[in-house]
Protein 1
Amino acid sequence: GENVEQHPSTLSVQEGDSAVIKCTYSDSASNYFPWYKQELGKGPQLIIDIRSNVGEKKDQRIAVTLNKTAKHFSLHITETQPEDSAVYFCAASKGGSARQLTFGSGTQLTVLP
Amino acid sequence: GAVVSQHPSWVICKSGTSVKIECRSLDFQATTMFWYRQFPKQSLMLMATSNEGSKATYEQGVEKDKFLINHASLTLSTLTVTSAHPEDSSFYICSARRGGSSYEQYFGPGTRLTVT
């Protein structure tokens, strides 16, 4: 089955700096890659996603890049703010009736004021 | 939007009792709903996948007789933890996916279960 690895497990940045989180996946059939933000005690919130027919997608301060050949994708957050502090999860899914997500292990991002 | 609610947000029950958690998609019809379990500082572990009107598909190692899932309508799925034990204490989260070609899963806020 699919295996998703995520790095780093923790990341601290100064407010205003950029943060990058990287994930690799094992199943070349995966074609959907979402990123979720989870605050303490809450459910994950979808923040951005990308399909395999696209190399990059941007939404304001957040961007995701995908390298299908290398089977890795990354989340980029620019101009970080304290409210960006949370756990971020990457995930991968492929087609089929269920389209289950396989999650990475998560990254605790701390933005220092 | 795509809002998913869960009820209750937290529950405490005694060992041996059963507890039911509801998951509702508020503004869309969810062909498929998923139930996850999450331990502190860990990732989400998929427990089961349910399609409206069908029996749930459980992941390996998840006891289907202990974790009963009912997806009775396109907006409601329930998870019942039967004969709960302290080791069942966890954060349970549901998600919902629209039908058709949709891939996006929208998560509920989670339910904190504590079994004493």
Protein 2
Amino acid sequence: GESVGLHLPTLSVQEGDNSIINCAYSNSASDYFIWYKQESGKGPQFIIDIRSNMDKRQGQRVTVLLNKTVKHLSLQIAATQPGDSAVYFCAETPRGWSSASKIIFGSGTRLSIRP
Amino acid sequence: DVKVTQSSRYLVKRTGEKVFLECVQDMDHENMFWYRQDPGLGLRLIYFSYDVKMKEKGDIPEGYSVSREKKERFSLILESASTNQTSMYLCASSSGGSDTGELFFGEGSRLTVL
């Protein structure tokens, strides 16, 4: 069946270094992908999204890369800061996405920052 | 500041009890969602609603029902709570006119069923 998964459940990064969080998806019909950040005790927050007609999108200190050939998604965080400590979820939606469509979340990667 | 408010952060209930989880959003959003979050399983969609009195089953609707009588309020109901419904429950909303997958989440309701 379809799944949205992660290569690593935890990631430890030195403060100031770049972080790369990876995500694999198996549904080739998915055409819209999203990254969410969940800090401890809070609900997830939208970070950035990308559509399948793109392979890269940049935001503030974050970049999402999409490789449709190998069904792989990554989130890059530049100059990681203590405030980036959180669980990061990738999510996908099927082709023909609308705002009321189901969004399928992965299991999450915990990012911890070493001082 | 936009807000999704869940009425209870922590609840402890007994097996067989009826449980109501309330969610209110102040953004005039058309869409509202209930997810449960369990370690290693991510967020799984229980039900969602794209309009008042409308509801759609998500991936794990069994044992749950929902109510949306007003646009701003979406309630999750456990008719007869069971121990396997011990979980974190997250409510979210989104604009019907949005072209992004941006869901606005509440802070969650952690339910323990004994």
